[in-house]
Each structure stands twice: as structure tokens, then as C-alpha cells.
Amino acid sequence: MNEQKRGAYCVHPVFKAGTGLGSMSLAKRCRIWHKWGTQTWGETKIRTNSEKPASVMKLICLFLSISCFCLPGGQIGFAAANHPDLSWTERVISEEELLAVEISDPSLDLNTCLDILARLNNKESFYIRKDIRQGRELKVPRDFNAYRDWTPLPVRLPEKLCAPKLILVVKDVAFIGWYESGVLVGDSQACTGVCGQDTRAGSYRVEKKDAEHTSSSYPNDFGSPAWMPFSLHIYEAVWIHAGNVFGAHCSHGCVILPIEKAEALFRWAEPGTPVLIVEQALSRETGLRASGPALGNLGVPFRRVVRATED
To answer: Are 141 and 147 contacting, i.e. CB atoms less than 8 angstroms apart?
Structure first.
């Protein structure tokens, strides 16, 4: 055993940085510690009885210090190895590759993988299937499992935004989320206005709800007033409603969601619910910025997404 002896106290190599201890369970760490400690006491000569209690305390302190770095709650030191890989590459992916993902992990079935790709690419699953069959490039996660519960939105808002209910739209990530007392309870990819018909950033409220609303401004492909189901009116002719989501900016100014998410939001929201629309995430560590009302430094946590280079 390669141990560095320091009197009656030595450090086992398994506790040195870079040994992968952060991936071990607490029970396994304890077993390794107990086994090594027993061997160490048998091999190390204790010169006097008075030195033994001090040595025991040193060993205990070392174990407690290492545990602070290795327990799941500690996000420093060894625990960094447990962070999910949220990197992605832009490439063509086939249905056969998605089926292979399902074979390796049955919980990641084809529909789940399509939903993950839809959220990451700001499209509905229908358009993702079409892109795959036509061989178009998509943002593809390096690790689908890491994206199960992924959201680009803050999971918790600062205290000054902790209303009983709040709807948040972040335009640069093309996502909408709804919050109860500052905690994210639902979210979805969404599209906002195209250039020249931008969705205005600012603070609004749900003016009224209309589950069967039809547009008075724009016709559908058949020349009839466009159907806008599960609509929440926020300002002027702009509504949050269900529709086709095929990119980050694909509307005449409305905020459009896939129909299942739009229905969930419609049933959750009430007239008077605050709606906050911001242009972009100024910093994923420091907060949000709106081109309308100044929001200041909100200090909201984001999950970082990294684009990976091709191998």
C-alpha cells in the first residue's frame, strides 16, 4: 500500500484529487475508509498512548472534510464530476440512432427523444420528425439523459418577483414558463414575432381568456379567420395561444405554444395574472434584461447549455 506516513497520520491515495471518489456513494466511501483505517492502525507505530487520541481526531477531521466535497449537496471539489453533460452538436440524426438510444435506455423512448429535440430546437415534435426524414441538421444532445428535465428558464425567481402566479417569456431562448410563488411549475418552447412584428418586451397582465378565439387580423390558409385556441390576451392584438411552433420567431407578434402546453397554461392562468416578457438572458449567472421596464440584477439561476465541437 502506497501511503505517505506522517507520524501516526497518513493520507490514503484514494482521497487525493482526481481519483473519482466524488462518484462513490457515502456507504462505499465509509467502507473504504474503515478498511484502510484498520490496516493503517495495524501498520503504523504509535509511539505513546497520548498521541493516539490526537491521531484519531485528525483522521475524523479528514473524513468529515472530504465528505463535504463528495456528498451530493456539495457542488465543489470532487462533486463536479457529477454535473450533467448539457453540450450539443449541430448535425443530422436518424431515427435508427434514436431507436438505438431507446435500446440502451428503455426510458428514453422515441417520443421522449423527439420531445427533447423539440425543446432544444424550438420546434414541435411534428417538425422534428420531418427534419429527421429530410436529413436536416438539428441541435443534438451529447447525452439525451441529461436533457430529461432540462429548461433554459430559471427554476426559481428572486423574491421581488415571487407573485402568487407569474408568466415569464424569454425571447432569446424562445421559452415561456409559469411560476407559483417564484417556483417554475410549467414551461414550453414558444415562438414570438418575426422581425418587423416583434413581440414587445414589458410587463403586462392577462386581460381575458378565450378558449375558441379567432383572429380578427390574419386569415388562415383557407382565407378564414385564423383559429387561436386557448388564448390569453396580453396587449393590443397580441395573445398567448396554441399554434404551429417551427422556430424561435415565427408569429405576427403573438406568443405561440404547442397545443398541449397552451391548454395547460390556459387552464392554469387567471385574468389578472402578471406576464413578464424580456428580450434576453443578459447573463445566466446575473439575471435577465428587458428592453422595456428596467429589471435590474435579478440573480436568477440558469442551467448552462454548451455547444460542443465535433469530434
So the answer is: yes
Q: How far is CA 208 from the centre of its chain?
A: 31
Q: What is the pLDDT of residue 215?
A: 81
- State the Rg of the chain over Cα: 27
Tens of pLDDT, residue by residue over 241-277, are 999 999 888 888 899 999 999 999 999 999 999 999 9
**Percentage helix, strand, coil, to 5, in the chain?**
30, 30, 40
Q: 211 CB contacts (<8 Å, ≥6 apart)?
A: 229, 230, 231, 266
If residue 66 lies in a helix (H) or strand (E), which one and from where to where?
helix 51-70
List C-alpha distances in Å: 81 to 22, 76, 114, 248: 7, 9, 27, 33
Assigned domain for 196 exists = yes
Please identify, among 81, 97, 132, the residue that sits at the C-terminal boundary of a domain.
81
Structural domain ending residue among the three candidates 81, 110, 132? 81
Residue 12 has pLDDT above 90, yes or no: no
Q: Check residues 247 and 53 and name the one with the higher pLDDT.
A: 247
Instruction: Output the nine-digit C-alpha cell for 111.
Output: 417520443
| Structural domain count of the chain | 3
CB neighbours of residue 245 within 10 Å: 25
- Mean pLDDT score across all residues of the chain: 74
Q: What is the residue range of 119's domain?
A: 87-147
- Per-residue model confidence (pLDDT) at position 251: 85
Buried b (16+ CB within 10 A) or exposed e, 201-239: beebebeebeeebebeeeeeeeeeebebbbbbbbeeebb
Q: With a threshold of 0.70, does the pTM exceed it?
A: no
